[in-house]
Every structure is written in structure tokens, then in C-alpha cells.
Amino acid sequence: MTNKRVGHGSLVIAGLLSIGTAILADLAIERLTITSGLLRLLVAVSPLPFFFRFIVEEFRWIRAQDEFHRRVLLDSLAIAFPLAIAGGVTVDALQSAGFLTRLGIGDVWPFMALSWVPSRVDRGSAVSLTTPST
Amino acid sequence: MNNRLRVLRAELGLSQGQLADRLGVSRQTINVIENGKYDASLPLALKIGKLFGVPVEDIFFLDEP
């Protein structure tokens, strides 16, 4: 039950760094000729510290919210998480069925964060977050 | 669940923001509680009761069937 304000800045930066390093690692493995198995492994897991950092920042941000906003986040997560999984499963199934020959899960996962958008819109309208003060 | 929070707040002449600051929550939280879109947790309800000096059941009550 706190109202301490924690900005989105560090959360956004951590998120961008996570996605950015994951894309760079993917490109490096695909396009650079890295013969050493150990080096390939290190490049492959190099985004992990950034993702862990993102999780830490996310926890800090969520814990700084009051009970109502945590409830909104929880409800949003309940929509976003299955939506992201459904998107991944659908892409995988379409690829297996031969409809997506050039796209794979590796191409679409950066966009899974967008699954958060409809849930936020839904919860935002449901709870009238923008109602004026009276 | 319904509540008399808006009435009690008006009696004290507080804005939603001022009440939110005193309770340590956001203004939006006060707004959704007053509009019956969110039920305050027990700790928050107790804090509200203490702030207004009235029992919780005088602020929050179940809708009539």
C-alpha cells in the first residue's frame, strides 16, 4: 500500500537492452563465422543478464505501485501471457503446416511484447484510469 | 460493494489527490473506489476508517439484494 513513484525510464531501457542484445546475438550467430563452440554458447546466452536486469526493474516498478495498480497489472498479465503463448504456438503451427516458410518463432518473439497492448487497453477502459479528479 | 467515501471526503473538504496522499495510494485508486469499480483491501479500508474516525462498516457496505 504505497504510492512511491518509480519512473518507467529504467524499465524501458532494460527492456530495450534485452531485446536489442537478443537480436544482436541472433545476428552474430547467423552471420558471423564463429567456429568456437564455447564462443557461440557465450554469444547465445549473452542477452540473459539483460533479461534478468529487466525482471529486476520490473519487480521494482510493480512493487512501487499501489494495490489497485498491481491488480490492473495482474489482470493485464492474465491476458498478455496466454495471448503471447497463443501467438507463438500459432506461428509454430503455421510454419509446420508450410504457410510460414520464412518466418519462425525467432522472428516473431520480439513482437510478443505487443500482447501487453490489448490487455492494457482493456483494463484501462475497464477501470477508467483517466477519469478526472473531483 | 458500495461505499460513502466520496461523501466523507467532501465533508473533510479533501480532493481525491489529497486523500490519496494521506493514504499513500494514487488518485486513480481513490477514484475507482469511490465509483465502486474497485474494492479496497482490508488494510486500506482500515486506514480509511482510521483517517475519517469512523468504523469501516460505516464506510463500506454490501449492496442491498
Walk me through what this model shows.
The complex is a heterodimer of chains A (134) and B (65). Chain A is mostly helical and 134 residues long. Helices cover 70% and strands 0% of the residues of chain A. Chain A is built from 6 helices and no strands. Chain A has helices spanning 9-31, 37-45, 48-63, 67-96, 105-108, 116-127. The radius of gyration of chain A is 19 Å and the shape is flat. Chain B is mainly α and 65 residues long. Helix content of chain B is 54%, strand content 6%. Chain B has 4 helices and 2 strands; from the N terminus they run E-H-H-H-H-E. Chain B has helices at 5-12, 16-23, 27-34, 42-52; strands at residues 2-3, 60-61. Chain B has a two-stranded antiparallel sheet with strand order 1-2. The longest helix of chain B has 11 residues, at 42-52. The termini of chain B are close together. The mean pLDDT of chain B is 93. Classes of the chains: A mainly alpha (134), B mainly alpha (65).
Write the layout of secondary structure elements.
The complex is a heterodimer of chains A (134) and B (65).
Chain A: H1 9-31, H2 37-45, H3 48-63, H4 67-96, H5 105-108, H6 116-127
Chain B: E1 2-3, H1 5-12, H2 16-23, H3 27-34, H4 42-52, E2 60-61
Antiparallel strand pairs in B: 1-2
Radius of gyration of chain B: 11 Å
On the 0 to 100 scale, the average pLDDT of chain A is 79
> Portion of residues in helices of chain A?
over 70%
Integer-rounded radius of gyration of chain A: 19 Å
Show unreliable segments of chain A.
Answer: 126-134
Largest sheet of chain B: 2 strands, antiparallel
Structural class of chain A: mainly alpha
- The tally of strands of chain B reads 2
For the termini of chain A, the CA-CA separation is 22 Å
Tell me the β content of chain A.
under 5%
